[in-house]
Amino acid sequence: MYKIISWIMVTLMLPFYALTSGIELIGSWNRSEESKTNIVGAGAYFRSQGIATDGESYFFSSKTTLIRTELDGISTINANLSAIPEELSAFGIKHIGGMSYYNGKIYAGMEDSKVWDYPIIGVFDPETLELVDYYIMDAELITRGMPWVTVDPETGYLYCMDHSKKPTMILAYDINNGMKEVSRVQLSKTIPSIQGCEFRDGFMYAATNDETQAIYKVNVHTGESEKIIDRNLLGGEGEGMTFIEKDGKTYLVAIDLGTIFINTFIREYEF
User: Fold this and answer.
1) Can you give the residue range of the structural domain that contains 133?
2) Cβ neighbours, 10 Å, residue 5
3) pLDDT surpassing 50 at residue 18
4) pTM of the model
5) Based on the structure, what is the number of domains in the chain?
């Protein structure tokens, strides 16, 4: 029965795969990904915000859910379809954003969208995908919610920024010291609409939803940044990113919502 239902669902989705794949061909000459996976329908919703990895699996967030998949990005291992507990709903939290895996935990930006009173760092168990801890941050300093966080695995410092659309300052907190603030660094220039970040070799890489859905390399000590990739996604919305080792190579993996918002692409860029 399960196979029959699966076959029916795949058959029903075929026209949408064809449509979104056809749209994707427009402007494909101007994109530089090494490979991509197109996920259509409900699966796209569950992969619509952030992405993180423990090196053996992927974690994806939507506004209210977390799922864990194999490294194909498709095969689901586990899911929490109600990942915001009542304790945080009481603060108006209704959005899980960009996230990062560190030391056996998932750290995620969580926010009361359009209100911005409670920027929250949520800590999730990667096996159960349940919330195990959280931190309410300073809303006067972090002025437009907490759309993403990332962790430098070399230091255990968690990074976020003071404004999600036009940030001016990089903020760092020590996970291993009660999320104590450790630094504030001015950005040399605004990196607009950051959707998710990840560290690699001491540098922070930021995936954005700017005009070209670009990815930037950021020095968190000096605030200097440089653009390294224009994703050129033809509309839609650029979302989060992570890094993965595969076949002896390092890949930058970024996700985006398709032009008509019924699909998600998981794109791999050789790094």
Assistant:
1) 2-270
2) 9
3) yes
4) 0.94
5) 1
